[in-house]
Amino acid sequence: MELADIRLDLGFRYAANDAMMVALVIEDDQTLLDLLQERLLSMGHECRKARSQAEAVELLEAYAFDYILLDLEIPSRSEGDADIAYGQNLLRKIRQMPGHSRTPVLVMTGHGLESHHLSVETMKLGATDFIGKPFGRDNPLESRIREALLTQAAERNGANETAPAKITKFNGGDLVFYDDRVELCGITVCGGKNSSIKRRVLEILREQTKQGHYRCFSIKNIADRLKLDRPGAVAEAVADFRRECRERMRDAGVDCENENVVSNQNRGYHLHDWIKVLEGIDEEEPAATEGNMSLTENQRGIIRVLEKHEIQKPRKLSEALCVPASVLVKEVDGLVKAGVVVEEGNGSNRTLKLAKNGVRESLSPGME
Q: 290 by DSSP, 3-state: which?
C-alpha cells in the first residue's frame, strides 16, 4: 500500500487523535524548549522535556513516547558542555533500548542541513528525519512530525493487515486498588501505593461524595493536597495514566479513549461514572519456587515462545499462540507476579522476556 493511500485511510484518524500523541523533546536551550512545547501543545500533543543526554535516558526508561524531537548538540549532563557527539550517542542508545527501537526520532540541528556528511552519518544511526533550525517555511516543524507519524502508521498498518485485531469499545468496569498495583478490568495500569505521583493522584480521585458520586478536583486542589511544588506534575501524571490505560486495554482488544476512566468535563479531574472502585485483597500465595508453581497451558506456551525468541511484544505472543489478547494479558500478569516473566517499557512499547534466574527453577515437576 502506497503512503498516499495510507493518508486517505488514516489521515483524518490521526488528525482526530492528535491529542493522544506524547512526545519527548530533548533540547538544551530553555527558550527554544519552551517554544517547542508551545508548538506541540498547539497541535494537541503532550510532551515531556529533557535538557541533557542523562535526563533523556531517565525519561526513556520510565515512559513510552509516540515520537522524539532530538537536538543533536546537547550536553551529556545538565551542567556540561554541549557537543554533537552526545546527541549521536543518545540516538544510538535510543535505537538499542527495548520499546524505542522503532519510535520516530526527528533530529533538530542548525548543522545537519549544511553538512551532508553529518546528515548521512546521523541517518545511519537511526534518525527518522532532519528538521533544520530555525523553524519556518523552509523547515516546517508540524508537517514533518505528521509525516513521520503517518509513515509509522503505514508501517503498522502493513504489519497488521494479515491478522486484523478485533477491537471492542470500552464501556466501564472495575478499578481495583491493591497495595502493590491498580487494575482496570483485571489489567494492571498503575503501580503500588506511593510508588508514583500517578498512584497518589488516583487515591484522591477515588474519593466520593455522600451521594456516591466521584469528587471533582482542580489541578491546584490535587497539587496542594500532595504538596507538590509544580502543579503541572498532576497533569503529567493524569496524561501518563490515560496513556497506560489506552495502551494496556488496546493490548487486550479494548478501545479505551482518553476520558473513559479519568474525565475532566466538569472543569476538574474526576473518575468517569461507569468506573466502579473496589478495594483489592490478594490471596496468600506461596512464592514461585521449584516444585510449587502450577502453569496453565497458555502460560507454558508463553514460556516456550520466550525461550525461543527471548524478547516479544504481547501482540506477537497472541498471534504466535492463537490466543485472544484479552486472555493473554491475564496469563502474562500471572507470570510477571510469579517472577517468571519480566516486563519492560509501557503501552505499545511493552516487551516481555524470561527472568534472568531462569524459568526452570519455577516450574513444577513434569511441567517442563
A: coil
- Domain residues for 13? 3-160
Distance CA(108)–CA(130), nearest Å, equals 6
Angle, helices 314-321 vs 297-309, to 10°: value is 120
Instruction: Please check whether residue 286 lies inside any domain of the structure.
Output: no
Rounded to whole angstroms, the Cα distance separating 104 from 88 reads 15
Residues 24 and 145 in one domain: yes
Q: Are 138 and 110 in contact (CB under 8 A)?
A: no
140: enclosing H helix or E strand: none
Does the bond joining 231 to the residue before it have cis omega, within 30 degrees of 0? no
Is the residue at 355 inside a domain? yes
CB contact at 8 A, 237 and 228: no
CATH number at 27 reads 3.40.50.2300
Q: What is the CATH number of the domain that holds 267?
A: 1.10.10
CA distances from 275 to 121, 211, 327 (A): 51, 15, 21
Give 310-333 pLDDT, tens digit per residue.
667 777 776 666 666 666 777 788
Whether the pLDDT of residue 288 is over 50: the answer is no
DSSP 8-state secondary structure symbol assigned to residue 45 = -
Does residue 16 sit in the same domain as residue 100? yes
In contact, 172 and 181? CB cutoff 8 Å: no
Question: Mapping DSSP to helix (H, G, I), strand (E, B) and coil, where does residue 236 land?
Answer: helix
How do 173-177 and 275-279 pair as beta strands? parallel
Task: From 279, 305, 340, give the residue that closes a domain.
Answer: 279
Domain count across the chain: 3
- Residue among 62, 131, 60, 70 at smallest CA distance from 101: 60
Q: Which of 158, 220, 224 is closest to 2 using CA atoms?
A: 158
Residues 17 and 152 occupy one common structural domain: yes
Residue 367 burial class via C-beta count within 10 angstroms: exposed 0-12, middle 13-18, buried 19 and up: middle
Mean pLDDT of the chain: 77
- CA distance linking residue 337 with residue 345, whole number of Å: 16
Same domain flag for 336 and 194: no
Q: Is the peptide bond before 134 cis (omega within 30 degrees of 0)?
A: yes
